[in-house]
Amino acid sequence: MLAAVVVGAGFAAAGAWQEYVVAGHPLHEVANGRRVWVRAVASDDPKALAEKRFGGKKVMVRAELVEFRDGGEVVRGGGAVVVMAPEAGWRGLLPGQEVEFRARVSRAWRSDLTVAVLRADGPPAAVGESPWWQRVAGRVRGHFADAAQRGLPDDAAGLLPGLVIGDTSRLTERVQENFEETDLAHLTAVSGANITILLGAVLVSMRALTVDPRMGAVIAGLALVMFVILARPSPSVLRAAVMGAVALLALCTGRRKQALPALCTAIIGLIAWSPALAVDAGFTLSVLATAGLIVLAPGWSDWLRAHGWWRIPADGLAVAAAAFVVTTPVVIAMTGHLSLVAIVVNVLVEPVIAPITVLGALGAVLACLWSPPAVFVLHCTSPPLWWLLTVADRAAALGASVALPTGIRSGLIAAVLCGLLITALRPRPRGEAIESDPAGRT
Length: 442
What we know:
Blueprint: H1 2-23, E1 35-42, E2 47-48, H2 51-54, E3 58-70, E4 73-76, E5 80-86, E6 98-106, E7 114-120, E8 126-127, H3 132-151, H4 154-165, H5 173-181, H6 192-208, H7 213-230, H8 235-253, H9 256-273, H10 281-295, H11 297-306, H12 311-335, E9 337-339, H13 342-369, H14 371-379, H15 382-398, E10 401-403, H16 408-424
Parallel strand pairs: 5-7
Antiparallel strand pairs: 1-3, 1-6, 2-3, 3-4, 3-5, 6-7, 6-8, 9-10
């Protein structure tokens, strides 16, 4: 308890300091709507925005501010900014590239340590060079997307890079809307599940080749590092890498007492490295889903198996239900969206995620070496991708979702209801029959 209080107080003080720095940033003194010249370094790939909502093709780029020029005054200072820009000149930007552009200043949308939203007037006036590893990762991502485009239909070709490495640049709007409606959007972002599947495939392959377990662990670690570089070492990807490694630890050891402290250690380390994760909804969802996998899913799966279920469907339902129950309060508080078919849909598509991820990763590697075999391997993902797209399309057509009020109050009410549900579904140990002897003794 003392350690928890000390750590909590330390992070509270650090968070307050970060908020104070953001609140006093010089960019806040610039009038809303005023145009300034900005120099910033991109910290993530440009994300395409829906044309219906933002009027024309636009992208969103997260970046780190270097300096801005208001009139003749140049003000230096860091800070996270969000850049809203037209697609032309911004679509091919790589993380680590420094750009200079003219933009209108707007206030940040969320209290997530973002200094401001910058609305660029047009293409950047100057673009610097990105680090070499980002250029390599960009070429691999490009070859992978091109091979998928040649070997798969449009919807599947746009979805596959999102499922494997989180590249949603070619994802069609219809597929994106279907996934959001059915609570499958988490599949198009790099998550701990992706990394758990890939690490599990590497370890199984090493065991099949009778490689020494220690060498297999080293190779799995190298594969993890390569995947993080390919998917971009942003905080969200690093979060997924740590959470995936924790989930793999739970699956490999079967010892929840080891996995749960590992999860807590990962949370502390990640927040210490990147304080902005403390107010990141994706981080919260990832932590809760991993905790549900460790704490709730095994017991629910055992209960289902004790009542006649086979192991594979029992595990699938338990994992989907646990992730849904523990993340629902945050989803409702943030979006006000509750899908009534989310558990069923996730159970239906869960069997195809692993083969898609493994074949897609293999195809990404082959795409850098020789295109024809990469196209063939990616074409093998057509059946599972068809199933995934069909389930999402049919489920979205049902319109089985509920719109609820957003905010903390709705989230707390949902949290209480989910807590009661978890308590009601908690497996209870079977009591032993108590027999009495003729003398009345038990």
